[in-house]
Task: structure prediction
Amino acid sequence: MLSIKNKTAFITGASSGIGKACAEQFAAAGAKVILTARRIDKIEQLATDIKQKYGVDALALQLDIQRKDQVAALIEGLPQNWQQIDILVNNAGLALSSDKIQAGDPSNWDTVINTNLNGLLYVTHAILPQMLERNSGHIVNIGSIAGHDYYPGGNIYCATKHAVKAISKCLRLDLAGTAIRVSEIDPGAVETEFSEVRWQDKNRAKEFYADFIPLVADDIADAAIYCATRPLHVDVAEMIIFPTAQASANHLSRNEGGAKGMFD
Ligand SMILES: NC(=O)c1ccc[n+]([C@@H]2O[C@H](COP(=O)([O-])OP(=O)(O)OC[C@H]3O[C@@H](n4cnc5c(N)ncnc54)[C@H](OP(=O)(O)O)[C@@H]3O)[C@@H](O)[C@H]2O)c1
Result:
């Protein structure tokens, strides 16, 4: 097992859910963490908590990954002792609504594409040169089962997560011959703020997770730690992780026993 003590992990979307759990678990394993998200208050609080709880350094930086210039400026302007990024966790992402394409709102599509796909590319592009220069580093992309499967109303979100899968695979090809590792973790249903953001409806989100046992964010952070702590000659390319109650994007065994679609 490879130690990540004193390594630096850069995490997008650290203000909530999987990104926040990754921040905690990487810090617990001794890594320094750079926490980024749009909600600065949340990541500043998390940085304070992490420093107290795990005795490692944590830096909170506000970042909207949709903004190419902001991404580049933030990476360029990192304080001296934070400039070497060993692990990048491309986690920030969202879905907005479960509307069918014919009923969809194109401005929602822009946000989802600009975050899940373009944002991931901007951050990766800004951080890769230093990894290449050192010939070391690890990129962990959080994809989704929506990148392997399809469901009614999944349209744009599925498209972006299929794109994340393509980017992960192509990145591994582009980096072949270097020591840089690329892993993709693809969760099924995880109870986070994800559904609340998707539907802008707390009750609907709560109800969605009420009659099966979903994954929790720590389950996915645990997988990210697994990837990051393999020996350097091991690159975990892809992990699909379901809650036991889920068999595909369209099959969730809810308590009453029936298999229902994810979003019906
Ligand atoms: N929950 C699930 O069932 C599930 C399943 C499969 C895959 N995933 C994927 O897991 C990742 C994390 O989602 P989650 O479940 O942890 O949801 P979450 O609790 O809603 O967290 C999403 C995170 O992304 C950040 N974010 C969103 N837009 C951003 C932007 N433009 N710039 C920077 N940060 C942004 C949010 O921070 P701010 O709002 O503060 O910016 C938040 O920290 C996403 O890529 C999602 O697609 C989730």
About this structure: The pocket of NAP is lined by residues 12-13, 15-19, 37-39, 42, 63-66, 91-94, 115, 119, 142, 144, 187, 189-190, 192-194, 197, 217 (CB under 6 Å). The first helix runs from residue 17 to 28. The radius of gyration is 18 Å.
